[in-house]
Amino acid sequence: MLKSSFKKIPGGSLLLTALLTGILAATGVYAAFASVYQPAQVVVAARNVEPLKKIGPGDVKVITISRRDLHPRALTQLGQAIGAYTRMPLVEGEMLFPEKLVRDPGQAVEAYGTMKPDETLITLKSSQVNWPDVLRDGDFVSALAVYPDRVEEVATHARVVHNSKPLPILGELQSAREAEARPTSEITLLLNREEAKKILMATISAKLVYLLPQSPEKVAAR
C-alpha cells in the first residue's frame, strides 16, 4: 500500500486559519479606505500670486485630493482660472474660488480702490481662527487671541471681504463625523497692516483666535 509523501504539519490548520483571517482583514481595510477616499481634482495656486495680476498657465495647477476635502465652490478646471485677474493675493497651494477672481480687470481695480495706504488683505483658514457662520461680506469684526495667561484684542476693526464658510441649515444638527468632513473654510479681511501682523502672529502663538462681529453702533462710531 502506497503511503502519502506529504507530512502533516503540526498546527497547520491554525496557520491556515490565521492566514485567511489576515487576508480578510486586509481586504476589509482596503474596502473601507476605498469607500472613504474618493479622488477629486481641484485648481490651486502653483505659486504666490500678487493681486490684480492676470493668471497664466504657470500660476495655477490641478491636484488630486479626497472628495471630502473639496469645497463645493472650488474651481476644478484650469480654464476657469487662466486669463482671469486676481481680486486678492493667492498663496501657493490654496484652492481657488470664483470670488477670488474676476474677468474684468476694471472690477479688480475697483475692489482695491477703497484701500488705504496702511491697509492690507489677509486670508485666514478655519484651522487658524474661529468665526461665526453668520458673518457676511462687508461685516466688521474684531479679533481676540486667547493665551494661557491672558486674552488680548489683537485687531479692533477689520472688514470681511469674503467668507467662504457655508451657512448652516436651520434645524440641522451636524454629527462629529460630519463636522470633521466639512471642508476647510477661509475668510478674507481688510484691515490695518499692524493689526494684520498681530493676527498672523496670534495664529502661531495663541491657543485660540476668535473673530467677533462688531455692533452697528460701534461701526458707526468710528
TrEMBL record:
Pfam families: SAF. InterPro entries: SAF. This is Flp pilus assembly protein CpaB. Residues 40-102 form the SAF domain. The lineage of its organism: Bacteria, Bacillati, Bacillota, Clostridia, Neomoorellales.
